[in-house]
Amino acid sequence: MRMKNTHSLKLAKLALALGILSFLSFPALAVKIEGKPIEMYTKKIGEVTHWLPEEVTVTQGERVTFIVKHEMGGKYNFHGFAIPDLHIAETVKEHETKTIPVTINLKPGTYEIRCQFHFPAHVSSKLIVLPAADGVKSDKKSATSPTTN
Ligand SMILES: [Cu+2]
Questions:
Q1: Would you call 78 exposed, middle or buried from its count of C-beta atoms within 10 A (0-12, 13-18, 19+)?
Q2: In this structure, which residues have their CB less than 5 angstroms from ion ligand 1?
Q3: What does pTM read for this prediction?
Q4: Per-residue pLDDT of the chain (149 residues; tens, 9 = 90+)
């Protein structure tokens, strides 16, 4: 009898622990996003595969996470997602979502986001890097709280 009680108590504890564990693991299962999320996806336009959106704008030194999807179907069951200037070259399988956290360690300018496997067949997207704008930040601050100074 006592054994049985201990057993069921253990089971209850286990169930509770599993419950808490599954509850806690939900955020862990969710995509880990660092900084600004940027969703990108493949799309066939006419006969040509593109990375979209056509342009992505970021700031120099910014932390972003690319959330990359290939849901397009068709003859390719994978595509590449590469930003050569940032030494990124990932493979994105069909129906897979890949999260790629990255710090934009690039000088202001325009760079390329391409499929490294089917390049130049597939149309690249532009990564536009704006200068780190300390001036803009302080402008915003004074605009939202004009009494600060
Ligand atoms: Cu491709």
A1: middle
A2: 79, 115, 118, 122
A3: 0.69
A4: 555 566 777 766 766 666 655 555 555 455 678 899 999 999 999 989 999 999 999 999 999 999 999 988 778 899 999 999 999 999 999 999 999 999 999 999 999 999 999 988 899 999 999 999 664 444 444 444 444 34
Q: Are strands 78-83 and 88-93 parallel, antiparallel or unpaired?
A: antiparallel
- Cα–Cα distance between 93 and 95 in angstroms, integer? 6
The structure tokens 């590469």 sit at 82
Give 52's contacts (C-beta < 8 A, 6+ positions apart).
40, 41, 42, 43, 125
CA 29–ligand 1 middle distance (angstroms) = 27
pLDDT computed for residue 39 by the predictor: 97
**Main-chain dihedrals φ then ψ at residue 30, nearest 5 degrees:** -65, 160
CATH for 31-130 is 2.60.40.420
Span from the CA of 122 to the centroid of ligand 1 (angstroms): 6
* Domain spans in the chain, listed from the N-terminal domain onward: 1-30, 31-130
Q: Phi first, then psi: what are they for 48, rounded to 5°?
A: -115, 135
